[in-house]
C-alpha cells in the first residue's frame, strides 16, 4: 500500500513539474522583429544578423524584414508600410531597426512614442536627437565611422597622402557622415578638400574626376542605387567599381562590401557589435528594464582591411607592416 501511494505521489509530482516547463519555455520565448534598412545579401547585414542571434537566438523567435534601400531608396516608403503591417500581424515583444533609413522611414513615423513595444536602433550615423531619440520606447546604438583611423591606415599604405575627399550617395547617411566629418576633420591626419553627394552615376563620375584634381584619397560609402544612364538604379558593385575606376587613386570606406568591389582599404565598423549590443539592450527592455535606464551606446571596435587586387591595379607596393593584424580581401570577380 505504501509503495502504491509513493508511486502515485511521485507520478503526480513529475506531471506537475513537467506541466510547468511549457509555461517557463513560453515565458522565456520572446518575439522579435528586425527591420534592416539594406539588402539581405550585404555582409553588413549578415554580420549584424549574427550578432543579434548571438544575444537573442536561444530566447526568441526572430523575423527579419529587409527594406532594400541601399539600391532602391525610392521604394523605401512602401517597404516601411509593409514592415508596419508585419509588425501588426506578428505582434513582437521587441523591435530592432538597423541603420538610418529604417529610422526615417519606419520607426519615426510608425513606432516612436506611438506603441509601447521597446525598439532598439543600431547602425545609426545621425545624432540621436535628429530622430527624437531616446524616446519613451526607443534607445539603441550609434554608428560612428573610424574616419581618423582609416585615413591614418591609408597613409601607412601610401605615405604621400596629404589630402582627402568624401563621396556618399545623397540621402540620410550622407547628411550624417558630413556632420561627423565637419565636427572632427581638424583632427584627421590629412586635409579634407571636398564632400560630394551624387544621386546619379553620371554626376558621381564627374565629381570623382573633380575630386581627383585636389585629393590624394577618396572616402566612399552607400553608393548602391545611383541612377545609371538608362535611368535604372545600379547595384552596389556596379556603382562602386565605376567610381573606383573614375577616381584612379587610393580609396577607402567603412564597410567590407565596398572592399570586395574594388576599394583599397578601410578600418571597418563591426556590424556584429552593432547587432549584438542592440540585441542585448532589447533583451533587457523585454525583461522589464525601463528604456530610461538603457542609455544610447556607441560602437568601439574597428578592423583594418586591405585589398591586394586594388594595390596591384594602383601599382602600390606597401611596407609589410600594413598587413599585420589586417584582413586581406581581394576584389570579387
Secondary structure layout:
Elements: H1 2-28, E1 30-36, H2 43-56, E2 60-66, H3 76-90, E3 94-98, H4 100-111, E4 119-124, E5 138-142, H5 147-157, E6 163-168, H6 172-184, E7 191-196, H7 201-214, E8 217-221, H8 236-247, E9 251-253, H9 256-259, E10 265-269, H10 271-286, E11 297-298, E12 302-306, H11 308-314, E13 327-328
Task: Write the H/E string, N to C.
Answer: HEHEHEHEEHEHEHEHEHEHEEHE
Poorly predicted regions are 1-7, 9-28
Largest sheet: 7 strands, mixed
Largest beta sheet: what is the strand line-up? 7-6-8-9-10-12-13
Number of helices: 11
Distance from first to last alpha carbon: 79 Å
Beta fraction: 15-25%
Describe this structure in words.
- The chain is an alpha/beta fold and about 325 residues long.
- It contains 11 helices and 13 strands.
- The chain has helices at about 1-30, 45-55, 75-90, 100-110, 145-155, 170-185, 200-215, 235-245, 255-260, 270-285, 310-315, and strands at about 30-35, 60-65, 95-100, 120-125, 140, 165-170, 190-195, 215-220, 250-255, 265-270, 295-300, 300-305, 325-330.
- β1, α2 and β2 form a beta-alpha-beta unit.
- α7 packs parallel to α8.
- The radius of gyration is 24 Å and the shape is globular.
- The model is unreliable at about 1-5 and about 10-30 (pLDDT under 50).
Amino acid at each position: 500500500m505504501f509503495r502504491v501511494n509513493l508511486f502515485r505521489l511521485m507520478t503526480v509530482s513529475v506531471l506537475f513539474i513537467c506541466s510547468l516547463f511549457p509555461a517557463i519555455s513560453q515565458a522565456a520565448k520572446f518575439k522579435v522583429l528586425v527591420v534592416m534598412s539594406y539588402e539581405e545579401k550585404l555582409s553588413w547585414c549578415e554580420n549584424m544578423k549574427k550578432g543579434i542571434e548571438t544575444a537573442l537566438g536561444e530566447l526568441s523567435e526572430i523575423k527579419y524584414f529587409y527594406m532594400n534601400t541601399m539600391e532602391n531608396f525610392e521604394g523605401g516608403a512602401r517597404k516601411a508600410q509593409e514592415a508596419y503591417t508585419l509588425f501588426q500581424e506578428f505582434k513582437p515583444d521587441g523591435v530592432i531597426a538597423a541603420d538610418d533609413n529604417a529610422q526615417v522611414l519606419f520607426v519615426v513615423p510608425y513606432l516612436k512614442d506611438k506603441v509601447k513595444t521597446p525598439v532598439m536602433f543600431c547602425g545609426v550615423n545621425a545624432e540621436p536627437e535628429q530622430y527624437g531619440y531616446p524616446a519613451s520606447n526607443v534607445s539603441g546604438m550609434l554608428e560612428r565611422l573610424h574616419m581618423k583611423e582609416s585615413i591614418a591606415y591609408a597613409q601607412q599604405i601610401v605615405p604621400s597622402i596629404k589630402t582627402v575627399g568624401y563621396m556618399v550617395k545623397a540621402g540620410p547617411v550622407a547628411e550624417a557622415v558630413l556632420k561627423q566629418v565637419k565636427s572632427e576633420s581638424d583632427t584627421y591626419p590629412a586635409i579634407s578638400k571636398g564632400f560630394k553627394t551624387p544621386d546619379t552615376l553620371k554626376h558621381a563620375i564627374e565629381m570623382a574626376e573633380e575630386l581627383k584634381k585636389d585629393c590624394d584619397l577618396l572616402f566612399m560609402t552607400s553608393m548602391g542605387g545611383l541612377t545609371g544612364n538608362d535611368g535604372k538604379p545600379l547595384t552596389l558593385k556596379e556603382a562602386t567599381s565605376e567610381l573606383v575606376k573614375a577616381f584612379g587613386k587610393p580609396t577607402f570606406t567603412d564597410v567590407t562590401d565596398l572592399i570586395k568591389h574594388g576599394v583599397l582599404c578601410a578600418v571597418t565598423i563591426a556590424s556584429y557589435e552593432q547587432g549584438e549590443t542592440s540585441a542585448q539592450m532589447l533583451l533587457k527592455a523585454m525583461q522589464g528594464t525601463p528604456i530610461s535606464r538603457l542609455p544610447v551606446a556607441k560602437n568601439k571596435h574597428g578592423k583594418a582591411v586591405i585589398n591586394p587586387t586594388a594595390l596591384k591595379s594602383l601599382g602600390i607596393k606597401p611596407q609589410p607592416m600594413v598587413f599585420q593584424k589586417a584582413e586581406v580581401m581581394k576584389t570579387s570577380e
